[in-house]
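RECORD TYPE: protein structure
NAME: Pyridoxalphosphate-dependent protein
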Amino acid sequence: MSVTATTAAATPTADRAVCAPLPVLGRDVTVPLVTGGDVTYAALDYAASAPALQRVWDDVAAYAPYYGSVHRGAGYLSQLSTDLFENARRTVAEFLDCRPADQVVFTRSTTDSLNLLARALPAGCQVFVFETEHHASLLPWRDARVTFLDAPRTPRQAVETLERALADRDPHGPALVCVTGASNVTGELWPVRELAAAAHAHGARIVLDAAQLAPHHPVSVRELDVDWVAFSGHKLYAPFGSGVLAGRADWLTAADPYLAGGGASRKVTRREDGGVAVEWHESAARHEAGSPNVIGAYSIASACKALTEAGFETLVARERRLIDTVRAGLAEVPEVRILSLFGDDAPRVGVISFVVEGWNSSHFAAALSAEYGIGVRDGLFCAHPLVRTLLGADPGTQGECGAPEAAPGEKSLNAIRVSFGAGTPDEHVERFVRAVRELVRDGAKWRYRTEDGRCVPAV
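PREDICTED:
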């Protein structure tokens, strides 16, 4: 049973010149250390926001003087911007290997995309979602009948769990399955193709949250046979407040616009009763009311081109080597426990969460930053049910995303997440592994205190 159709067959190479990181902004930024001096910043928080590719920044800078409002202007800059915006839509469709009739809607983020789809669900739609999802996938379905599925412990169990749940549903009503492609907590790849097959066999549709998958692996709507895919620009090396919802048009066209306003409306007239009659667009513009984020859309298209031209086979091979470096280094520290659903052999992207015995997670992350210039994430990663399950905590136990209440040295219901990608230098992950080893062995060199729910160096 294949884990996912997105797993590329690549042979890792030891030649770092061949697998060099892609140039990103901030790669030469230095930050001060509390112990004195400064160091080049190691950005290892890609799962939250990846740095912009230099290629993306250069493309945006070249376009910026020609910026204009799209679709509604006769002037040269407006026409140029309109062409650029619509070409970006086509580029994204190619990047995702969309079907000819699929729509590409530009949004603000994955969260925005899934909320848009939630607003477009047919009446009586039942939604199936695993408790392992990011809150962007877990929470938007407030107006639907939602069935939350327990965390599976193997990819096969995930498929079997979904099949059982779908078999018990009303076979005549609409249904939607929402699933992640790669976990934002463990980095593990999910069996998307098999889950899509199970959904369709029971008359349901499926939406793929590709926020953590698209930056690391190729995503083919056709090969995975998903109905929709959502992702964010800020995780795809294009951090300009943009996102994508791509897929089947029928539910989107049948629904009222996500936002009402200019751009979504094709014709507006006054009625005899004094009211207003509106004829909405049937294209993607139906859900893109207002002046769209042209630069955000263009930056996503630029990132799609850059990743495609770099070759996912090469990017995947290099990332696997970085993953092996981190996991092997953490395995050498007995006090470290890596969090996992599917086990050590599960295919994954460059996202790894762990806890350290005897350490408050916020304290550990603060020490990595202040003493080593390493940026990671600590907390529940906006996936509270999943992290609680992985930590073996009671579902009602207190703990907030990124805001632990425990003081340094006290236990907290939180974990530490290190994440990396196409722009990560080898030195950054090597420094991280060395820092973990030293902190566990020698302790922090500085004193820390809790301030506004965060652990910070004491001054």
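COMMENT: Residues 228 and 381 are 24 Å apart (CA to CA).
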